Amino acid sequence: MNINFITKALFFIGLIFLPCTVLSNPIEQQRTDFLSAEQAINQGNDAVFLPLSTGLADYPLYPYLQYQWLNNHLLDTDKILAFLANYSDSRYAPMLRAKWLAYLAGQQRWREFIQNYQASDNTALECQFQWASYQTGNIPQALNEAKRLWVTGETLPKECDSLLIVLLASPLMTSELMWQRFELALTKDNVALATHIQHLMNQDVQSVASSWLQIHNNPALVMQSNFWQPSMGALFAHGVLRLAKSELDMAIAAWDSNKTVFNPTNELSQQVEHDLALALARKRDARAFERLNLVLNPDEDVRDWKVRAALLEQNWQHVSSALAGLTSAEQQQPKWQYWQARSLGQIGNAIASQTLFASVAQDRSFYGFLAADTINRPYQANDKPVLLASNDLDALANETDFKVAKELSFLHRDQEAKRQWSYAVKKLPKQRLLVAAKLAQAWQWDQIAIMTLVQADYWDDLALRFPVTYSSQVISNATVQQLEPALVFGLMRQESMLDKNAESPVGARGLMQIMPETGRQIASKMNEPWQSASSLFNPDTNIKYGTFYYKQMLNRFNGNFAMAAAAYNAGPHRVDKWLPNGQWMPADVWIETIPFKETRKYVTSVLSYTLIYSQRLQQNTLKIKNFLPDVPSG
After folding, report:
1. Which of 188, 349, 425, 455 lies 20 to 30 Å from 262, alpha-carbon distance?
2. pLDDT, tens digit, for every residue of 441-495?
């Protein structure tokens, strides 16, 4: 009898019944065999893979291994179905199902596709499912779902093409539906899609769509009166909003001069007023407060920026009025309570101001620390560590999903381990998320521990939220650069949550998130050879370069910690543009009116984390007021 046939048959039987199989190879041998089996998969060598895999049935990464093998054997329906049944709770089941369904679609095996499809957020698979329904006779449902999928400004995956072609040929495709997607595409600045939709339109509306594309690509055309007809209000509004992104004053002039001529709908007019007012506010323009008052039914952005616009004026009556316009829930936020207390003090109501500052000072936050300094109160740490039963950590660590994450980490599959962890904790109730956070802390996975605690909506375990890993490198480099170690920790905590392998979407790397080009420049300034971009994942190198760069920013901005932190995040040239005109500005006002939400939050977080780390490092002499000298005029 064929030996290869027997081996495969035994493997198939074992795959179906593996949950009942218990093998006893030592974990070290299993790790070696796992790596050899992976190599065999990559080489397409089933003769080596199959016997190796049988000895790994109780190894935590066995489903991961089978997933990899089955990716190369998608025609083996029985094996696929067995895996999906036996490992339905694993992260790899939906991943394998997606690959298999794509294979079935490629083979036009539509009935099998329908039988095995499960709804997900995979648009390509959803399109293929609806096409499968169409192919098997369920045409009305398929077309109705195609209509729903059509309404997006995003480019749909190529797997949707067949379905969309039959939708376009059906009576369900109306000019209104065509135009809806055209507008959505322009809203997303997806000019290629909008142009494609234009070519699908009837001849009588193609010229109108052409005008929209012209205005979208060259919004300065709004200034040319011969381009317009009174019926083109929606297009005029679109052009104004496009122009506002590059030439705000020109856009405002065009809108104010012509909005009554073109008479767009009330809803559209208010959208333009809303966006122009916010653009002025974010530009820190003196006209912002007045313009924000023109917005009817203001949303949270408008309400917030009305306060900031009044702060820029340093008109405390306007500040008080804007604060009164916040919702009752917003007024209870420590941030706005702090500004209410500041406002009361400025307009002469000292007793109410002191009372409110005392209330805000109970909060462990940037605004709470500011309030505490204002009335000379101690900071409130409110440290309440998570308390667990003695066996909680071991019980969770021995659950399958977490054993997989730990083993992936042991094999230095760090990204895969993170994905596995994320999958595992999604299944947990809030109380067990606390256990998971403590487990990650015990495994010294700082970033994962912090993120898991956030998912649990628990904020008071300070040792977990603010780890002091890399303290020797932090203290030594802070000493060299004459910085507070707590400040360096505050920067690291905000930048990477102390993950040495962190990498941002734009390529910033390591604990202090340094761009490779910046790293190269720092190496040159420090008179040392530049190693490589990957050297920024080395904690020693990263902390040395990060502290050096922050000290550069501090020197550039004359020792102003807030401005240096803003420059670390957004770049020094942007900070130069945000300097006040004509007179110095209180640092708290300057920070609150930073145009970028990300940078505003960054600065307040770094400074508040610095105060928390000063307590963690038992350096309780630091005061936030000492980090906030007034901001000079530009």
Report:
1. 188
2. 999 999 999 999 999 999 999 999 999 999 999 999 999 999 999 999 999 999 9
Residues 6+ apart with CB under 8 A from 331: 323, 337, 340
The whole-angstrom separation of Cα 603 and Cα 598 is 9
- What does the block give as tokens for 41? 């998969």
Tokens found for residue 542 = 């990263």
Environment class of 330 (CB within 10 Å of its CB; exposed 0-12, middle 13-18, buried 19+): middle
CA–CA distances in Å: residue 88 to residues 19, 382, 433: 12, 42, 22
d(CA 431, CA 425): 11
Hey, how many other C-beta atoms are within 10 angstroms of the C-beta on 429? 8
| Tokens found for residue 538 | 């080395």
Which spans in 228-326 are helix H?
Answer: 233-244, 248-262, 266-282, 288-292, 300-313, 316-324
Q: With residue 432 as reference, give the H or E element that holds it.
A: helix 430-442
Torsion of CA 390, 392, 393, 397, to 10 degrees: 140
493-531 core/surface letters (b: 16 or more CB in 10 A; e: else)? bbbbbbbbebbeeeebbbbbbbebebbbbbbeeeeeeee
Whole-number Cα distances in Å, 25 to 35, 56, 65, 107, 620: 15, 8, 16, 40, 53
What's the whole-model pTM score? 0.90
Are 277 and 292 a contacting pair, CB within 8 Å? Answer: yes
Give the integer Cα–Cα distance in Å for 188 and 48: 51
Find the angle CA(567)-CA(570)-CA(571) to the nearest 5 degrees.
55
Active-site choice (407, 495, 503, 592): 495
In CATH, what number does 395-459 get? Answer: 1.10.1240.20
Inter-residue contact 250 to 220 (CB < 8 Å): yes
> Domain 471-627, what architecture?
Orthogonal Bundle (1.10)
pLDDT above 80: residue 363: yes
What is the mean pLDDT of the segment spanning 404-415?
Answer: 96
Q: DSSP 3-state assignment of 93?
A: helix
pLDDT of residue 340 exceeding 70, the answer is: yes
Which of 178-190 are b and which e, b meaning 16 or more Cβ less than 10 Å from the residue's Cβ? bbbbbbbbbeeeb
- Considering just the CA atoms, what is the radius of gyration of the chain in Å? 30
Domain boundaries, the chain: 3-107, 167-305, 395-459, 471-627
Question: Does residue 495 carry a catalytic annotation?
Answer: yes
Whether residue 371 contacts residue 355, with contact meaning beta carbons closer than 8 Å, is answered with no
Give the list of residues 6+ apart from residue 20 with CB closer than 8 angstroms, or none.
none
Interatomic CA distance for residues 534 and 516, integer angstroms:
8
| Neighbour tally for 42: CB within 10 Å | 11
User: How is 366-424 classified by DSSP, letter by letter?
Assistant: HHHHHHHHHTT-------------TTHHHHHHTSHHHHHHHHHHHTT-HHHHHHHHHHH
Q: Is residue 230 within 8 Å of residue 262, measured between CB atoms? A: yes
First to last CA, the chain: 88
Residue owning tokens 């990477």: 496
- Measured CA to CA, the distance from residue 1 to residue 9 in angstroms comes to 12
525 and 548 in contact (C-beta within 8 Å)? Answer: yes
From the number of C-beta atoms within 10 Å of its C-beta (0-12, 13-18, 19+), residue 621 rates as exposed
Q: Tell me if 581 sits within 8 A of 283, measured CB to CB.
A: no
Residues 6+ apart with CB under 8 A from 317: 347
